[in-house]
Amino acid sequence: xxxxxxxxxxxxxxxxxxxxxxxxxxxxxxxxxxxxxxxxxxxxxxxxxxxxxxxxxxxxxxxxxxxxxxxxxxxxxxxxxxxxxxxxxxxxxxxxxxxxxxxxxxxxxxxxxxxxxxxxxxxxxxxxxxxxxxxxxxxxxxxxxxxxxxxxxxxxxxxxxxxxxxxxxxxxxxxxxxxxxxxxxxxxxxxxxxxxxxxxxxxxxxxxxxxxxxxxxxxxxxxxxxxxxxxxxxxxxxxxxxxxxxxxxxxxxxxxxxxxxxxxxxxxxxxxxxxxxxxxxxxxxxxxxxx
Length: 291
Known about the structure:
2 domains, 434 Repressor (Amino-terminal Domain), disordered C terminus, MLTR_LBD, alpha+beta, 45% helix, Beta-Lactamase, single chain, DNA binding
């Protein structure tokens, strides 16, 4: 671990960002052009003291999970992310195995979406990043590990919890869409890919998935109209729009309500409910909490 080089790299990358780049207001009395240390710490859900020690070349070696979050917050490219890992004494993640690093262009858009649910998914339906409204609506799933990271796996293996946000009459359609999208990913990535392994595992463990897989449906939805159910606010009618990276490995989903609709009022209430829950959530004594 090269503490001095890591500290310098973090400081320079922090100072290169502007508040607007990460969805923050610059404020009136601002003495620095870039982000403040406390702003980076807040966005990464770690203590200011811990992050400050990293920039001073002090403290314990950061975990790979923490580096992943910092790479997202600092809008690092894949090469910059890999460099950050090596400075911190870790091997860079294998890009061929299905990368959890959020594409900076999608992250920049997500950072500007404060008043509507939005999240970034991998092509295995893993939630890589989400704003507070998406977490309030779908649940905070960005920190999950293993097979349960995939929304497809959760849909078919943890169905009661995962499907609660959809009306019963819409669940079959949603399940078919998830399977069709996974088949498209398998076709793009190949038979030896993590996508193919996921499909094979789900065929083995879920009779429903196996039945839908045998329908041979292939496709990705780039826009849709959904009725999503919140336990306190009830059904919310939203339009869903998808924006993908060029290689289709990541997709930004944005859920919007029609102007002056009941759903628009529900999203405003959801924002209040979501922030109240996050404010009440206990923190980790170690200073880090997965987002």
